[in-house]
Design goal:
This protein has 619 residues and is of the alpha/beta class. The chain has 21 helices and 20 strands. The chain is 46% helix and 19% strand. The longest helix has 33 residues. It starts with a strand and ends with a helix.
């Protein structure tokens, strides 16, 4: 389908990758991982033809249709959502877009005029797919201009647009950034089922694990292929790192011997020894790369706070907050934080998570209730937006402006600005790089460094995983695991939550914040159990005629497999539900194709199909 041969790319004196090869076969689902700044996004742009490599060739199958979701989404301010979603190059997409727009405006005359063309192009199936995608991504008002949308809404519109292109090859660059957990889980399920070729760059490790069949790692200007999902990749990569460590030790021994020779008198290094000197330079570069690879895997050594937390940390008493006097974000929230509390905050975009953080830290007053903050609390806040650093300043200047050295009050160790940056995976040359030349992930890493060097004893991380690569996330998780203060995390990264938090604040309907004891996976299991219990109660009063025989057969088969009571009830219900949902979709499609429905009935039938399809997918 697509082949890269000996592709190289440099920016100035900096080589991103050299002579790399990559093959994508039909049906492949490939995850591309690597440290920020190694060139992952640049490689995607080369595949798309937006960037020319310095050398090498890119071969694409004739007629290959590629859909590309970049990290930056550019739409005209006055462009409507409907125009952004449906491709102007696809007549069927444009027709369905016009149909959706007419439905939104309740324009029956336009709907009437579009019906013959919808039938001629057999566009109803595409329309059902579009309705399902828009519904799943919570895109409702398709007439809104793009400039009125939030960052998360723009992301969802861009994602809907690329999914509805139905490409042969789908390329996604950080698709889960700014999406809430419900949408991420839907997208994960959609891509797992979809029969397409996928090339994916993401920091979401559960996403990689559940979707990808192959992981490609970009490291030290090269690509490494690993067959299997993310979990398999971790095992195989560790084996490679162990081999790298052995190689590094061997190279270090040779290097020491060669260095003694290089430092000898000039007479010992005559012209006829030029080959040996060139070999020394090559050896030095190879050893440097091996050490860099190993250094990137080491954990950030914790910097202990100079101020220990007292008995009182933060106490919230019956606090409430309403937005624009109409939308209740939360009400009656009570919680007393204790030392070494590790809390995750989850909920859909716009529910009030960041607002709660601002109230807890005293930057915003609640409508009612009170917040008491202990005198010894020293807050470190890592927000969603990177501060506006001066572009001409170097990385080390940003740290040196805060302090040239930091002394750990516990160990007494003095850490220089450059040493601190090395802990945060900035290599020697990147330490002196101007801010304007840093990647988005490197900027986030620098921002995180400035927050942690203040030695907080209460650390708040608001979407910390956005734009951070997997390697940096692993290093950050190791640091936070040893952090001896209070940790509050707002994130949509399920893996990050499972690794670090001990209980959750879950934003639910009606402004209620649920305090759940456990991590995110445990919460989702509990949530599914509760949903199944509700479904079972509903099904008892709505069991269809003739279902007794199905239930009896199901009971006999489930007893043989010794299912639990809950599993048996769930399985019985699914055997009833799935055929009914499938039959319902067939009936609705037949009704829509009959030609006797009014415009209003067509609209209702279309919405019912989308809703029923979602229920069927879940079942």
């Amino acid at each position: 389908m697509l082949q890269l041969n000996n592709v190289s790319l440099s920016f100035g004196n900096r080589v991103l990758f050299s002579d790399i090869n990559l093959s994508l076969l039909e049906g492949d689902k490939v995850g591309l991982v690597g440290v920020n700044g190694t060139g992952k996004s640049s490689l995607l742009r080369i595949i798309m033809g937006e960037l020319e490599p310095d050398s090498g060739t890119i071969t694409r199958r004739s007629g290959l249709r590629i859909g590309y979701l970049s990290q930056q989404h550019r739409f005209a301010e006055d462009e409507r959502v409907i125009d952004a979603v449906f491709s102007p190059h696809d007549p069927k997409a444009q027709l369905v877009g016009a149909w959706q727009s007419a439905l939104e405006r309740a324009d029956e005359e336009t709907q009437e005029s579009l019906l013959p063309e919808m039938d001629r192009l057999s566009a109803w199936q595409y329309e059902q797919e579009a309705t399902a995608v828009l519904h799943a991504l919570h895109i409702t008002d398709v007439e809104r201009p793009m400039h009125l949308l939030s960052g998360g809404e723009v992301k969802r519109v861009a994602l809907a647009g690329v999914l509805l292109q139905q490409p042969d090859l789908l390329i996604l660059d950080e698709p889960t950034n700014h999406l809430d957990l419900e949408v991420i889980e839907w997208l994960e399920s959609y891509l797992s089922r979809a029969k397409l070729t996928l090339l994916l760059v993401t920091h979401d490790r559960y996403f990689l694990d559940n979707i990808c069949t192959r992981i490609v790692e970009m490291d030290q200007q090269r690509l490494y292929n690993y067959e299997g999902n993310y979990e398999t990749f971790l095992t195989k990569r560790q084996e490679r790192l162990e081999q790298t460590a052995q190689t590094s030790d061997r190279l270090a021994n040779i290097y020491r011997q060669e260095l003694i020779w290089m430092r000898a008198t000039p007479q010992a290094r005559s012209g006829k020894q030029r080959a040996r000197k060139e070999h020394f330079a090559s050896l030095s570069a190879e050893l440097s790369k091996a050490r860099q690879t190993l250094r990137e895997q080491t954990a950030i050594e914790p910097l202990h706070s100079a101020i220990r937390l007292g008995k009182q940390v933060i106490e919230a008493r019956n606090i409430s907050k309403t937005f624009d006097r109409s939308k209740t974000l939360f009400k009656g929230f009570d919680y007393t934080f204790s030392r070494q509390d590790r809390v995750g905050i989850v909920g859909p975009n716009g529910c009030g998570k960041t607002t709660l953080l601002k109230i807890l830290t005293g930057h915003l007053a609640p409508d009612c209730g009170a917040v008491m903050i202990g005198e010894t609390v020293q807050v470190g806040y890592f927000g969603q937006k990177v501060p506006p650093y001066t572009p001409s300043k170097r990385v080390i200047d940003i740290i040196s402006d805060i302090a040239s050295h930091i002394k750990d009050p516990v160990t007494g160790q003095s850490v220089s600005a450059s040493q601190l940056l090395q802990r945060f995976l900035f290599s020697g040359d990147r330490i002196y790089t101007p801010i304007s030349l840093l990647s988005g992930g490197e900027l986030r890493r620098l921002y995180l460094c400035t927050v942690l060097m203040a030695n907080p004893n209460l650390l708040i991380l608001d979407e910390p995983t956005n734009d951070l690569d997997i390697t940096t996330l692993g290093v950050l998780e190791s640091y936070l695991a040893s952090f001896d203060g209070v940790l509050i995390i707002v994130t949509h990264d399920r893996y990050f939550l499972d690794k670090l938090v001990e209980h959750l604040f879950v934003f639910e309907d009606g402004g209620h914040i649920r305090d759940f004891p456990g991590n995110f996976t445990q919460y989702r299991v509990q949530q599914q159990i509760e949903e199944q219990q509700v479904a079972c109660k509903v099904s008892v009063t709505a069991t269809p005629k003739g279902a007794d025989n199905i239930q009896r057969t199901s009971k006999q088969s489930t007893r043989k497999k010794r299912r639990s009571y809950r599993e048996e009830q769930e399985f019985q219900q699914l055997e009833i539900t799935i055929p009914l949902l499938e039959q319902r979709i067939v009936e609705l499609e037949q009704q829509m194709s009959s030609g006797v429905l009014t415009n209003e009935d067509l609209l209702k039938a279309s919405e019912q199909i989308a809703q029923t399809q979602t229920e069927l997918d879940e079942a």
